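Um, can you check?
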Amino acid sequence: MDTRAVVEHHLDALQRADLEATLDDYTDESLLLVAGSEPVRGREALAAVFGPAIEAMFAPPSSSFTLDSLVVDGECGVITWHMTFPGGEVSFGTDTFVVRDGKIVLHTGAIQV
Protein backbone atom coordinates (compact mmCIF):
# COMPACT_ATOMS: atom_id res chain seq x y z
CA MET A 1 0.00 0.00 0.00
CA ASP A 2 1.16 3.52 -0.70
CA THR A 3 1.25 6.26 1.93
CA ARG A 4 -2.24 7.61 1.17
CA ALA A 5 -3.78 4.14 1.35
CA VAL A 6 -2.08 3.37 4.68
CA VAL A 7 -3.20 6.67 6.23
CA GLU A 8 -6.74 6.18 4.92
CA HIS A 9 -6.79 2.62 6.30
CA HIS A 10 -5.56 3.93 9.66
CA LEU A 11 -8.32 6.55 9.81
CA ASP A 12 -10.98 4.06 8.74
CA ALA A 13 -9.87 1.55 11.40
CA LEU A 14 -10.00 4.22 14.11
CA GLN A 15 -13.44 5.40 13.03
CA ARG A 16 -14.68 1.79 13.16
CA ALA A 17 -13.13 1.52 16.67
CA ASP A 18 -11.15 -1.50 15.40
CA LEU A 19 -7.98 -1.82 17.48
CA GLU A 20 -6.57 -4.81 15.58
CA ALA A 21 -7.01 -3.12 12.20
CA THR A 22 -5.40 0.03 13.61
CA LEU A 23 -2.39 -1.94 14.84
CA ASP A 24 -2.06 -3.67 11.45
CA ASP A 25 -0.64 -0.40 10.13
CA TYR A 26 2.37 -0.57 12.48
CA THR A 27 5.38 -2.81 13.16
CA ASP A 28 7.23 -3.71 16.35
CA GLU A 29 9.70 -0.94 15.50
CA SER A 30 7.12 1.78 14.77
CA LEU A 31 7.48 4.95 16.81
CA LEU A 32 4.68 7.25 18.03
CA LEU A 33 5.62 10.72 19.26
CA VAL A 34 2.82 12.79 20.79
CA ALA A 35 3.28 16.23 22.29
CA GLY A 36 3.39 16.01 26.08
CA SER A 37 3.87 12.22 26.21
CA GLU A 38 6.75 9.77 26.31
CA PRO A 39 7.77 8.08 23.03
CA VAL A 40 5.87 4.86 22.31
CA ARG A 41 7.54 2.10 20.29
CA GLY A 42 6.13 -1.17 18.97
CA ARG A 43 2.72 -2.74 18.49
CA GLU A 44 2.28 -3.84 22.11
CA ALA A 45 2.96 -0.37 23.47
CA LEU A 46 0.83 1.18 20.72
CA ALA A 47 -2.07 -1.09 21.73
CA ALA A 48 -1.84 0.37 25.24
CA VAL A 49 -2.22 3.87 23.74
CA PHE A 50 -4.76 3.23 20.99
CA GLY A 51 -6.99 0.87 23.00
CA PRO A 52 -8.08 3.45 25.58
CA ALA A 53 -8.20 6.22 22.96
CA ILE A 54 -10.52 4.14 20.79
CA GLU A 55 -12.77 3.36 23.76
CA ALA A 56 -12.93 6.99 24.91
CA MET A 57 -12.99 8.84 21.61
CA PHE A 58 -13.98 6.61 18.71
CA ALA A 59 -16.78 4.44 20.08
CA PRO A 60 -19.54 4.63 17.47
CA PRO A 61 -22.11 6.02 17.10
CA SER A 62 -21.45 8.72 19.68
CA SER A 63 -18.27 10.16 18.13
CA SER A 64 -17.96 12.37 15.10
CA PHE A 65 -14.58 12.55 13.32
CA THR A 66 -13.97 15.01 10.47
CA LEU A 67 -10.87 14.88 8.30
CA ASP A 68 -10.06 18.46 7.29
CA SER A 69 -7.02 17.79 5.12
CA LEU A 70 -4.72 15.00 3.95
CA VAL A 71 -1.48 15.84 2.14
CA VAL A 72 0.89 13.13 0.91
CA ASP A 73 4.29 13.36 -0.71
CA GLY A 74 6.19 10.12 -1.18
CA GLU A 75 6.50 8.30 2.13
CA CYS A 76 5.23 11.28 4.18
CA GLY A 77 1.68 12.27 4.97
CA VAL A 78 0.06 14.86 7.22
CA ILE A 79 -3.56 15.22 8.29
CA THR A 80 -5.56 17.85 10.12
CA TRP A 81 -8.86 16.95 11.73
CA HIS A 82 -11.41 17.69 14.44
CA MET A 83 -13.95 15.61 16.33
CA THR A 84 -16.49 15.41 19.10
CA PHE A 85 -16.86 12.46 21.44
CA PRO A 86 -18.72 11.73 24.68
CA GLY A 87 -17.35 14.15 27.25
CA GLY A 88 -15.13 16.17 24.95
CA GLU A 89 -14.11 17.78 21.73
CA VAL A 90 -10.88 18.04 19.75
CA SER A 91 -11.08 21.44 18.06
CA PHE A 92 -7.85 20.80 16.15
CA GLY A 93 -5.73 17.72 15.65
CA THR A 94 -2.76 17.05 13.42
CA ASP A 95 -0.81 13.87 12.72
CA THR A 96 2.22 13.24 10.55
CA PHE A 97 3.08 9.80 9.21
CA VAL A 98 6.16 8.27 7.60
CA VAL A 99 5.20 5.10 5.74
CA ARG A 100 7.65 2.50 4.44
CA ASP A 101 6.81 -0.86 2.89
CA GLY A 102 3.11 -0.34 3.65
CA LYS A 103 3.60 0.30 7.40
CA ILE A 104 3.71 3.41 9.56
CA VAL A 105 7.28 3.68 10.84
CA LEU A 106 6.91 7.13 12.44
CA HIS A 107 3.72 8.81 13.62
CA THR A 108 3.60 12.17 15.36
CA GLY A 109 0.55 13.94 16.68
CA ALA A 110 -0.84 16.88 18.60
CA ILE A 111 -4.37 17.88 19.60
CA GLN A 112 -6.18 20.85 21.07
CA VAL A 113 -8.89 19.49 23.39
